[in-house]
Write a structure and sequence with these properties.
The protein has five helices and six strands, in the order E-H-E-E-H-E-H-H-E-E-H. The chain is of the alpha+beta class and 125 residues long. The relative contact order is 0.09.
Length: 125
């Protein structure tokens, strides 16, 4: 069984911690007659409060920053639902060239930007 002795240097570090809370406490581990030193940082309520404020500011910045608009493709059924039109009307829009599309296999895709442009172009004043 390995015996680990734990010694904290209170006499050297505690008086400093009272003056400056952000300093570390050093712990010395004695294991098989070898000394290992590690630092333990003291976190105060003020440190946590500052972290919370910084985190909230960062989250607000991320939320307020708009992501670049991604190109979205819609299937025929989705376009019909959005525009509230029949399959025949959607086919007429394709045939007349009013609405551009891309066909991959048997599935027809429409760009959302093209749908919005078509609606804006045909908007009544």
């Amino acid at each position: 069984m390995i015996c680990i002795k734990l010694k904290i240097y209170f006499t050297q570090h505690v008086p400093k911690l009272v003056k400056n809370v952000n300093q570390s406490i050093f712990i010395c581990l004695i294991l098989n007659r070898k000394y290992y030193t590690m630092a333990i940082n003291v976190v105060t309520v003020d440190d946590l409060d500052n972290f919370r404020h910084k985190l909230l500011e960062d989250l607000k910045t991320i939320i307020q920053t708009k992501a670049p608009k991604q190109m979205q493709w819609l299937k025929s059924s989705e376009v019909r639902k959005v525009l509230k039109i029949s399959p025949g009307t959607l086919q007429n829009l394709r045939i007349n060239g009013t609405l551009s599309f891309t066909k991959i296999g048997s599935i027809i895709y429409y760009k959302q930007d093209d749908i919005e442009a078509m609606l804006s172009k045909n908007k009544s004043h």
